[in-house]
Amino acid sequence: MGKFSNDIRELLEGVGGKENIVTVSHCATRLRFVLADPKKADVGKIEKIKSVRGTFTQAGQFQVIIGNEVSVFYNELIKETGLKESSKEEAKKAGRQNMNFLQRLISHLAEIFAPIIPAIVVGGLILGFRNVIGDIAFFEDGSKTLTEVSQFWAGVHHFLWLIGEAIFFFLPVGITWSIAKKMGTTQILGIVLGITLVSPQLLNAYAVAGGAEPPVWDFGFTQIKMIGYQAQVIPAMLAGFILSYLEIKIRKITPEYISMIVVPFFALVPTVLIAHVVVGPIGWRIGSVISNVVYSGLTSAVGWLFAAVFGFFYAPLVITGLHHMTNAIDLQLMSEFGGTNLWPMIALSNIAQGSAVLAIIFINRNKPEKEEEKQVSIPATISCYLGVTEPAMFGINLKYVYPFFAAMIGSALAGVFSVATGVMANSIGVGGLPGILSIQPQFMLRFAVAMLIAIVVPFTLTVVFSKNNLFVKNTKSIAS
User: Fold this and answer.
1) Hey, which CATH number is domain 5-97, 3.30.1360.60, 3.30.450.20, 1.10.357.10, 3.40.50.10420?
2) Most exposed: 115, 167, 265, 362, by fewest CB within 10 Å?
């Protein structure tokens, strides 16, 4: 008999029996069930199980928070039930059966950006470091930067641009590769397609935007402008999906013995042509419109209102999965304006959720009956401050409601301050407290103040709401 045998039996009953489970996998803290009929899950019954810290549904998956021992629980579950082990990717695919069209669209978008986020985070940190040593005058009475007084640091500054350029200028290569990988098509073709969008023989997209006249491919009867799409997101996404669509369709009608020759040729060549004639220019225009609308909204006279709405509703967006859409907007802002004023608000929302959980820990500090809850709340706080909010939101804040609401208010106020003071980030970066490393140096002090707001306001409001039973879901389970 395993450590969690009784809990496993109760959990199986709670999810509607073994026969209701399509797949099950796990991540760092959660079991991820795809259920044949999600309505059969008895959430109230499941959340009463001793080892369960909370539940939520996301991306078509019914997720049960177990905590740090989730791998042990999962292994016992598989052993005792005979269920087939599934990877997170398999669970995601199966989970789409429970999603509507918009949810499936957002899920696909998230899967495209997830593999390239680590590179973008590194790139943002590198750009931030280069700005610190190359743009801020710390020396000789504030008249010179570190690169101006040290040849070594000047060399470091120059060298690091090699990495920054590879990540951001050639971002379309990563996007088209990621789409090919996600669609199950030939990944090297995705890489080649991306390179054709940023090839050095093409006039740089930024030069074209500055008014430079691009060279052309002259076919006699027509000419095509040789424009590059460096750092552009939407043109790369559109081209990537066209390539995958063509490859899948052509492969279906091509005999296996000639597919190695026919499929790559008739998928890649038309796609590159379409990318430079149609979807490239259209995608560039769409991206410019989106980024200009967002940037104008955040820098206008009513930018504070835009910031308040985004800061307040970002956490609920995370619950729905719609927050993944902001990655594309952030990247487009970076390509158009050399930075993003949207990302700082996301980092502040992370901090606010963690601060609300910190307040719960403070409220329940002398309550022995809450000791088990600390197994979720303490790691969840740390996780939030490092940029991952799901354990905090689903494990604590949504369980009680009022800390979640307090965090939303704190996030909104911090976001308003960030936008009102013009804070810009170099790029998407590490969320939470380390997010300050992605902020452009001249705005770091202002962002530090915004971070303080995101810590103090949610903490204070959570305590106040608790003592006054405001926005409380279950007064028996919290401080009086």
Assistant:
1) 3.30.1360.60
2) 265
